[in-house]
Amino acid sequence: MKEIKVGLFTVLALACLAYMATMVSADNAMFGRFVTYKALVSDAEGLFKKSLVRVAGIEGGFIEDIQLSGDRALVTFKIQKRLKITSDSKIKIKSIGFLGDRYIDIFLGDPALDRLPKDSLISVDEGGGLDKVTESAGNSLKNLEGIMNKMKEAIENDETDNALRDIVKDMRMTMGALAKITAGNQMAIGKIVKNLEVATSGMGQQFDPRNPNSIISKMGELTEIIANFKDVSASAKEIMAAINAGEGTVGKFLKDKDTEEQITDTISNVNKLVNRINSIEADLSIYSGYNTDNGSYSEFGMDLYPTPERFYRLGVTVSDFGPQSKTETQTKTISGGVTTVVDKEEIDKNALKINAQIGRNFHNFGIRAGLIETTGGAGIDYNIKPLGMKVSADVFDFGGANGANLRVSSDVRLWNVVYGKASLEDSLNDSRSLTVSGGLKFSDEDLASFIGLFAR
Q1: For residues 310 and 307, what is the distance between their CA atoms, to the nearest angstrom?
Q2: pLDDT at position 279, please?
């Protein structure tokens, strides 16, 4: 009864986890179903797989792949389906961050237009920066050249003398009008002159040394302030001279060539580390099932891909069969002067078994070796990608009672992230048995969706 309850709880937990994974997986419409588009750019420097795709400064997708297409770069990226990409949509390549990371910025265009089909090419606006400044400067120079030509024509034409004579006449008429205005406002001008005299008298008082409140009487204090300012300025000059000479901590930091090279190397190494971390992909799998002869089976695994050709497989297995953990104990009892020794051996069938392997891919094949359920072993995989299927063979547990265990297994995608798996244990021996299990397998995109959900 207890095993049935545990089995029901495991199935219910897997169903809930499958539902959550479906809600946040990269193919789901509610939390970010993605559509693939492409763009041709003349310069893809600074763009990497998993680089961000933004809309109005907000993350809306990521770069999936970058390949060379002729003398240009073909960038394949995914954008959330809720963002409508139309025929007049455009993209720009922009930079962000201290390290100069670059990303794709998308202008969505007119929402009334039809959505572009999957894998369509989006036009790229690669103008900007220095190109636009140069173009604007060229246009300004053309406009200035046009103005100068007009001025030259005005000066060098046959009517130049008449034009200058008209200007002189206009100036004389203007001066005459000013004279009439002055003659008609002599009283107002006289008042202005008197006001100027009053202002001049006030200024004279401020510069009178006999006035204790005048500016002149405060010159001593002002002189002291100026002297202090000169001292501060002299000290600042000495400090700057020492820094320029490379003296002191700041001077050495700014002038030392070794420090400059170390900073440059550090920034370069940080860039390499960030790019390497961004290039690592991971697949996560969880299976639980039942063996026809021996009982329950559960497995948790993770595949890490630092490069497309090389991978690491890590995980744990809990089962009622396979390599087992043994514990031997010895008990001594003394009765009537006679010592009795009892040896006892306990076998833990449900011991936690470790998987840690290193592998390499060759097209659709993958070979690996390392720990398989805490014993040495090796395996080979064959991926049938159109069917979402993988066939594997593992040989391990060479010290088992029935000899080495040759396990032949196959897992197939049933729906979204839900997979089914069947394994034939000890296929070379008469004690062979079948394990049937189901579970979930998450790709790198699914994990990114999970992280994005919990980061909100």
Answers
A1: 5
A2: 63
Phi, psi (rounded to 5 degrees) for 396: -160, -175
The angle subtended at Cα 128 by Cα 126 and Cα 130, nearest 5°, is 125
Whether the full predicted model's pTM is greater than 0.90, yes or no, is: no
Interatomic CA distance for residues 448 and 446, integer angstroms: 5
pLDDT at 25: 47
Task: Find out whether 301 and 409 touch, Cβ atoms under 8 Å.
Answer: no
What is the four-CA torsion angle of 18, 19, 21, 25, rounded to 10 degrees? 130
- Two tokens, residue 235: 């000290």
Tokens standing for residue 125: 């606006």
In the 3-class helix/strand/coil scheme, how is 267-322 assigned residue by residue? HHHHHHHHHHHHHCEEEEEEEEEEECCCEEEEEEEEEEECCCCEEEEEEEEEECCC
* Alpha helix positions (H), 207-256: 219-244, 248-255
The ranges of the chain with pLDDT < 50 are 24-31, 98, 128-131, 133, 455
The length of the chain in residues reads 456
